[in-house]
């Protein structure tokens, strides 16, 4: 990746300078709970796949 991108330390510095911005998408507490409930049955499988690489 470094062959086509700036060195990692420069990318980190750029991200640090950019700072935090306002969220482009926000959800209510009820919407967040609904999303969490929808994803709950898949949570263990997704975690296992991520850990397996």
The total of beta strands comes to 0
> What structural category characterises the helix and strand content?
mainly alpha
Which consecutive residue ranges, at least 5 long each, have pLDDT under 50?
A: none
End-to-end gap: 19 Å
* Radius of gyration, taken over Cα atoms and rounded to an integer in Å: 18 Å
Q: How many helices?
A: 3
| Major β-sheet annotation | none
Strand fraction: under 5%
Structural shape: flat
Q: What is the helix/strand order?
A: HHH
Measured as a percent range, the helix fraction is: 55-70%
Mean pLDDT: 91
Protein topology:
Layout: H1 8-18, H2 29-39, H3 43-52
Can you put this structure into words, describing what you see?
By secondary structure, this protein is mainly α. The protein has helices spanning 8-18, 29-39, 43-52. The chain is flat and about 40 Å long. It starts with 7 loop residues before the first helix and ends with a helix.
Question: Can you summarize this structure?
Answer:
The chain has helices at residues 8-18, 29-39, 43-52. The protein has 53 residues and is mostly helical. The longest helix has 11 residues, at 8-18.
Task: Record keyword descriptors for this entry.
53 residues; mainly alpha; flat
């Amino acid at each position: 990746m470094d062959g086509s991108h700036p060195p990692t330390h420069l990318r980190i510095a750029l991200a640090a300078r950019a700072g935090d911005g306002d969220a482009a998408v926000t959800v209510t507490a009820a919407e967040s709970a609904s999303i969490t409930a929808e994803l709950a049955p898949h949570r263990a499988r997704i975690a296992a796949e991520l850990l397996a690489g």
